[in-house]
């Protein structure tokens, strides 16, 4: 995977984490235990520090960056969906940032909160724990229900399992030229999209 030192500062990846070979890590990046970093994610610690705490995930095509002398932090069990951008913000423990959301400088997303897909969370925004954050600019819509927090936690557990699955079996290969008979499926899961649950 492309990992780059800058001005003597080298990224740190815990041995129990999984970072996809196409992800790019530069400089002051700390990937904690059991974390997942997806394909084509860009974690640029060339100004501020980027931290992924235990069990968090940053999915494919996400970007993390920040101003000098700032921390961009995803706390334990944090979940950052496909294509999201985090810049100089803090994503609280067991919180989720939805697909293609943008979370700006100085933002604090409270514990067990969910930022909706495509939300734009403007600089300095703070929300209390268990908030549903929606819109552009984003606002707190309401408090999350227990079952919504449970659904989010199940999804994060699937990514923690994906970390172990990738470590155990993901490998570069040549494609087949035709679909084999009785083609197997990858792992089945109990987690369903929210609209089906």
UniProtKB/TrEMBL annotation:
<dbReference type="Pfam" id="PF00132">
    <property type="entry name" value="Hexapep"/>
</dbReference>
<dbReference type="InterPro" id="IPR011004">
    <property type="entry name" value="Trimer_LpxA-like_sf"/>
</dbReference>
<dbReference type="InterPro" id="IPR050484">
    <property type="entry name" value="Transf_Hexapept/Carb_Anhydrase"/>
</dbReference>
<dbReference type="InterPro" id="IPR001451">
    <property type="entry name" value="Hexapep"/>
</dbReference>
<protein>
    <submittedName>
        <fullName>Phenylacetic acid degradation protein PaaY</fullName>
    </submittedName>
</protein>
<dbReference type="InterPro" id="IPR011974">
    <property type="entry name" value="PaaY"/>
</dbReference>
């Amino acid at each position: 995977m492309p990992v780059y030192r800058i001005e003597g500062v080298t990224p740190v990846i815990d041995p129990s984490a999984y970072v996809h070979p196409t992800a790019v890590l530069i400089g002051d990046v700390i990937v904690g235990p059991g974390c997942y970093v997806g394909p084509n994610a860009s974690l640029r610690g060339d100004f501020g520090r980027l931290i992924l705490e235990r069990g968090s995930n940053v999915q494919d095509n996400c970007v993390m960056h920040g101003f000098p002398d700032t921390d961009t932090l995803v706390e334990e069990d944090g979940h950052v969906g496909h294509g999201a951008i985090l810049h100089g913000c803090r994503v609280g423990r067991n919180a989720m940032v939805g697909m293609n959301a943008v979370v700006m400088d100085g933002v604090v997303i409270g514990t067990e909160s969910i930022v909706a897909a495509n939300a734009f969370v403007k600089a300095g925004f703070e929300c209390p724990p268990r908030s549903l954050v929606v819109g552009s600019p984003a606002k707190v819509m309401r408090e999350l229900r227990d079952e919504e927090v449970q659904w989010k936690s199940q999804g994060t557990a699937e990514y923690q399992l994906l970390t172990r699955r990738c470590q155990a079996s993901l490998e570069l290969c040549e494609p087949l030229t035709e679909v084999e008979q009785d083609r197997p499926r990858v792992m089945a899961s109990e987690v369903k999209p929210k609209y089906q649950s």
